[in-house]
Amino acid sequence: MSAPATADRSFAIERIFNAPVERVFRLWTDPLLVAQWWGIRDCTIPHCALDVRVGGHWRIDMLTASGALYRNQGSYLEVVENLRLSYRDEPDPEIQEWAGKPPGQSRHTVTFTPDGARTHVHFEVTLASAADRERLLALGMRGGWMQSFDRLQQLINRGANHAG
């Protein structure tokens, strides 16, 4: 995908995490660890299943502090260990914010680049249309992912992913 062709339907977030690339990649691929950081502030993850292989399905249910349940699911398009994950996100048509008109599928690509003992993560979301991009950004998608990344850094800081 060339940048000009998708620029009007994409957004990206860059973050450097204070952990080696193997550790950060594992935090994105181990369901027990993903359930500890994925989602907005103060949410819980009552269900997290990841079949991390090309064609494998994933599902993460996020329960907000106010009791709203958001089902997130899709399938993996590319898995290159310690380098890149790319997956399709298939919006749950039941989410009330869609008002009966869910957005199209999106592609999320996460690139992991070693930076000494740290890892540079480039996270890019490409939506089905420019209208979907504007709608999801207006609903707070970028801010939600930034909260997830904050939670991921907190988990790294706690060292909770050393086990296993």
Description:
- With 164 residues, the chain is of the alpha+beta class.
- Helix content is 29%, strand content 36%.
- The longest helix is centred in the C-terminal third of the chain and has 18 residues, at 141-158.
- The chain is globular and about 45 Å long.
Helicity level: 25-40%
Q: What is the helix tally?
A: 5
Distance between the termini: 36 Å
User: How would you describe the shape?
Assistant: globular
**H/E series:** HEHHEEEEEEHH
Structural class: alpha+beta
- The side-by-side strand order for the widest beta sheet comes to 1-7-6-5-4-3-2
For the secondary structure, the number of strands is 7
Low-confidence stretches: none
% residues in beta strands: 35-45%
Q: What is the mean predicted local confidence, pLDDT? A: 92
> What does the radius of gyration come to?
15 Å
Largest sheet: 7 strands, antiparallel
